[in-house]
Amino acid sequence: MVRSLTVGQNAQNGVTVSEDMHEVLSETKSALRARTMERDGALKELKDRSVELGITKCELAAATTQLELASKSLESNQKDLKVSQLALEDGKIELQNRHAALVERSAQLASSALELSRMTAEIVLLNELFESKTIELEKRNIQLIKTNDELNELLRQRDDFVSSLTHDLKNPLIGVNRILEALISGAVNTEEQTHLLQQIHSSNNFMLHMIWNLLDTYKHHSGALVPQLKPVNLLALLHAILAEFSFHMASKRQSAKLEIPASFPDVQADMILLRRALFNLVDNAIKFTPEGGCIEVFGEFDSTMVRLSVRDSGKGIPFEQREKLFEQFWQGKRGGDNQIGTGLGLYLTKNIVDLHGGSLECSSTDGEGATFSISLPRR
Prior knowledge:
Heat Shock Protein 90; five-stranded mixed β-sheet; 8 helices
């Protein structure tokens, strides 16, 4: 508005209009030039922007292509993922099935382990039982071998017994027959007849004694040897036994010493069996006492027991033979003596003493004879 006034004034004046116009025009040109430059700069910038936009479009197109490819790849990956998920599900189901099968197998294995443990324990027990039975069988085998040896020894002793019994019965019978033949023929005078008849009597007693021992032994084995207890006067019984052996002892020039006090008490016993036992001890002492020797019979007693002992004057009993003294059919040999007998005397004597609740013992010293002692309870 100011500028308009100035122009009007200049027009009125007619002088300075062209200068002002020139100045305005110059300013306008400058402004227009500046605007042009700005426009050119803007156009350049726009061109640059267009170039950049084109590049961006290209990049965007490339990115879009990449995105499409990535999308396709993603879709493919999604499909693969779905397939993988399905495979994973299948794998999980298979794994679950395998786990269940593994659990079942583990249970079966645990059951098998328990069964194996039970069977192992049974096998251990059976093995221990087998070992125990094996040991027991070995012991029984050893016992059978021992029993067989004992049986063989018993059979051998029995054969020896039969041989001895035959011999011991045969010789007296032959002797008796010869004496009887001499008596029948009348070749023996009256004085000698008494002596020969005593020999026959002694021989018969000897044979009867062996037969009684044999019968009593079989009675004992069958359980029929049962004592009938009655009061027995031991002093009178011993006198009778020694008197029965008097002829036999005289033939060997032997003597007997009886040391039994008159106050010796009676005992409750089976007189026949007790007589057999004492007879065996005296007979045994005579057998192992040499010619001219002495046999001692002595006794002692207290309030509960009576004890009778028979001692010979032979060579004694070797130590290694003493443990077999009371075995059936066993016959000892003392210091070179070879005495024939049945091997039943001491065996039967011990059984008779045992039946009476007593005991039979032996003591011996080499070269000083042997002593057999019977201990019986006073009833």
